[in-house]
Amino acid sequence: MATRVLQRVGRGLKETKRGLRASGQPTLTARSLAAFREDSWFKSLFVRKVDPRKDAHSHLLAKKEDNNLYKIQFHNVKPECLEAYNELWYEGVLPSIHEDPEYPCELVGTWNTWYGEQDQAVHLWRYRGGYPALTEVMNKLRQNKGFMDYRSERGKMLLSRRNQLLLEFSFWNEPAPRPGPNIYELRSYQLRPGTMIEWGNYWARAIEIRQQNQEAVGGFFSQIGSLYTVHHLWAYKDLQSRENIRNAAWQREGWDKIVYYTVPLIQHMESRIMIPMKTSPLQ
What we know:
It is globular, with a radius of gyration of 24 Å. The protein is α+β, with helices and mostly antiparallel strands and 283 residues long. α8 packs antiparallel against α10. An 8-stranded antiparallel beta barrel has the order 1-3-2-8-5-7-6-4. It starts with a helix and ends in a 7-residue tail after the last strand. Helix content is 42%, strand content 27%. A hairpin with a 4-residue loop joins β6 and β7. The chain is built from 10 helices and 8 strands. It has one domain: 2-Layer Sandwich (Alpha-Beta Plaits). Belongs to the NipSnap family. Keywords: Autophagy, Mitochondrion, Transit peptide. One of its GO terms (cellular component) is mitochondrial matrix. It comes from Salarias fasciatus (Jewelled blenny). It is found in: Mitochondrion matrix.
């Protein structure tokens, strides 16, 4: 059976080759095969061969020197309530919780979306200590009457909310407070299942190209929530600076090839331009 299938495939290839010759179209030559092999060899420089049965992707891609877990929240606010929502954030119980050492969590950044999905707030927290730290904070918040009152009042202002738990890529810098004024871009990628290792290997090189203007803030991949999701967070002085920096990347060696090989890994992508709220450590 297998032999007959191979024979039919061989005959089909010969017929195709004869047809190409008759039509004047180029056929596979030694030179084209060599070019194909060279292209495959070049791709192998980027892609690290990993057997997923031997280790979890999170262990291969995340930082090992710390135990940070991140939570990102997206709040879609009723348009008429956005100003009141921001004021409640500033004046409510959250600033005191963020400063309380009894809560093992840090506010990394908090923004309103400027371009992208409108009337939206985005919040990013870091939990030093991983899942136990997250569990400890959640348990304490349930016992905090001030927070529960704040949550009840906030709920009246929201249309929807969602969150994800994230790990940070080992090759990105850890997000650190920075002075402003800046705008921030959150680029979110939904990858094809099974391609996270490839993405990490390509971007381990790509980030070296994109660090030259210090615009890279943080890179994360999801663990709980929408899976095979990647978030890249960038900071720019303004929209024109963003345009100039992104265009300049195309002039650097290797950037075009990285884009060429990563685009097929993406199912969906989204860009948000965000403005920091006044209590955000990332300004």
